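Renewal narrative, Specific Aim 1. Our central claim is that a sequence can be written position by position from structural information alone. The example that follows is taken directly from our test logs and has not been curated for this report. It begins with the structure tokens describing the chain, in the order in which they were read.
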């Protein structure tokens, strides 16, 4: 039903050719709509762009007008459902252009994700990847978003497969590092600890991985070693990234904790101290354990 409404909407726009404004007015309408948008007069801007689309079915600025309308609804009004409908209409008009179709499908997928329509997002992203002659950066971005969307659907097998495909085929070291990290993180969700460890090891030996991703991978690998009671290995990893981990306090806390564990031969378990507070009552004192009632 929704697709039919979009088709009707686009058809009505294309049928108003007879109502087109006289030559020379097109640029004035689009220019005024742009200025209104920049000035924050979004209602007037919206009306201007809609008028341009209605009056200029063959106008050279139609793509710009569509894009502004999508911005107004999705970013200003926070109406991502209408934003998705507008993008669907855009695709019906411009989907035949191979230089625009992949990015339109990806934008549409992003809008579907905002709406929680993950299956529609997957369909749009898979369609986007079918178009040939795309820039490698564009393909990388689409694959990464596809893998992430599989994760939203809790289809972890396909998420892992897609991250692995991205890591193996990208020429960008940063993209590869991020894909390996996200793949390892997804593997931990299904408790595939051994393979997660393997992927993290690949990442931390990459010479051209971004420092932040390298640090996050080392921290995750240290967690795995800690679960296996391999505390010295975990400690060495944390020592290397204590100054580069995005959350320095968390890294320092783990470093202190692991140092105590290693010094004690792995026998110390660090727990918050348990305090007992004596509360005076009418007849006798009683002891309250603050672990049950909350620390004081």
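The sequence written for that structure reads:
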């Amino acid at each position: 039903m929704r697709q039919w409404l979009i088709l009707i909407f686009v058809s009505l726009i294309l049928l108003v050719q007879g109502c087109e404004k006289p030559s020379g007015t097109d640029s004035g309408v689009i220019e005024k709509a742009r200025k209104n948008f920049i000035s924050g007069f979004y209602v007037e801007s919206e009306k201007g762009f809609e008028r341009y689309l209605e009056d200029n079915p063959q106008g050279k600025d139609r793509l710009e007008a569509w894009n502004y309308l999508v911005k107004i609804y999705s970013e200003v009004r926070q109406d991502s459902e209408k934003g998705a409908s507008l993008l669907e209409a855009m695709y019906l008009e411009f989907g035949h252009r191979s230089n625009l179709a992949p990015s339109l499908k990806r934008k549409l997928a992003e809008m579907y994700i905002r709406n929680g329509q993950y299956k529609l997002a997957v369909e749009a992203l898979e369609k986007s990847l079918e178009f040939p002659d795309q820039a490698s950066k564009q393909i990388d971005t689409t694959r990464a978003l596809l893998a992430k969307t599989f994760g939203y659907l809790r289809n972890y097998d396909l998420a892992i497969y897609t991250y692995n495909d991205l890591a193996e085929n990208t020429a960008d070291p940063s993209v590869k590092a991020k894909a390996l990290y996200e793949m390892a993180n997804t593997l931990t969700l299904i408790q595939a600890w051994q393979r997660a460890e393997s992927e993290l090891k690949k990442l931390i030996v990459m010479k051209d991985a971004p420092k932040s991703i390298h640090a996050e991978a080392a921290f995750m690998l240290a967690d795995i070693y800690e679960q296996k009671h391999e505390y010295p290995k975990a400690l060495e990893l944390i020592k290397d990234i204590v100054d580069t981990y995005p959350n320095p306090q968390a890294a320092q806390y783990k470093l202190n904790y692991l140092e105590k564990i290693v010094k004690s031969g792995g026998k110390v378990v660090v727990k918050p101290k348990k305090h007992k507070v004596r509360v005076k009552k009418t007849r006798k004192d009683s002891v309250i354990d603050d672990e049950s009632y909350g620390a004081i």
